[in-house]
């Protein structure tokens, strides 16, 4: 696993072994960021990775110019891998949290934090988790207007809440679905 583009291009990243994380495949990550680069300027933007895993998506965003990144994972082992990977960047414009995603969203709301780019790739296929996150992002204004969500799912999503977004792209892979959504309201 490595960084695809930007100032950290080629940097090798450590991954976490086990069933609790599913690193984004290089092909999917590359597709997502290539598509996103046509609709999103990374500079002076703030990102949020709710299920951070190895931190690869956050580091890819920082490599392309994200100004400030928040990265979260409930797993202490994942947090250690994230720290190792972020330390390789010599970039200090990030916040790492070790919370359950529901608690994280409550903290973000109470601190009035908002983001321009959200990575949403939970390590499980529970559709209700997508509903909970998207509902909280919208209701609590955690996603800024014109903000983008890069969403990965093992199943095709037919979430009622997706109607609030403009679907920039949906691409199906072997066992993954990539959605790029933009909030334009």
From TrEMBL:
One of its GO terms (biological process) is rRNA methylation. Keywords: Methyltransferase, Transferase. The keyword Magnesium does not apply. InterPro entries: DNA_methylase_N6_adenine_CS, RNA_MeTrfase_RsmD, SAM-dependent_MTases_sf. The keyword Methyltransferase applies. GO terms for molecular function: methyltransferase activity; nucleic acid binding. This is 16S rRNA (Guanine966-N2)-methyltransferase. It comes from Mesoplasma corruscae. The gene is rsmD.
């Amino acid at each position: 696993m490595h960084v695809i583009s930007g100032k950290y291009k080629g940097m090798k990243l450590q991954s976490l072994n086990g069933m609790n994380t599913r690193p984004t495949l290089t092909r999917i990550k590359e597709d997502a960021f290539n598509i996103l680069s046509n609709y999103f300027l990374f500079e002076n933007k703030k990102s949020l990775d709710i299920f951070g895993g190895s931190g690869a998506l956050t580091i890819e965003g920082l490599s392309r110019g994200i100004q400030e990144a928040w990265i979260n994972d409930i797993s202490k082992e994942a947090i250690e891998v994230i720290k190792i990977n972020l330390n390789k960047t010599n970039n200090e414009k990030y916040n790492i949290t070790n919370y359950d995603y529901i608690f994280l969203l409550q903290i973000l709301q109470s601190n009035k934090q908002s983001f321009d780019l959200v990575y949403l790739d939970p390590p499980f296929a529970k559709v209700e988790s997508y509903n909970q996150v998207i509902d909280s992002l919208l209701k609590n204004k955690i996603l800024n207007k014109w903000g983008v969500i890069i969403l990965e799912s093992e199943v095709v999503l037919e979430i009622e809440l997706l109607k609030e977004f403009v679907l920039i792209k949906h691409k199906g892979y072997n066992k993954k679905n990539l959605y790029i959504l933009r909030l334009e309201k």
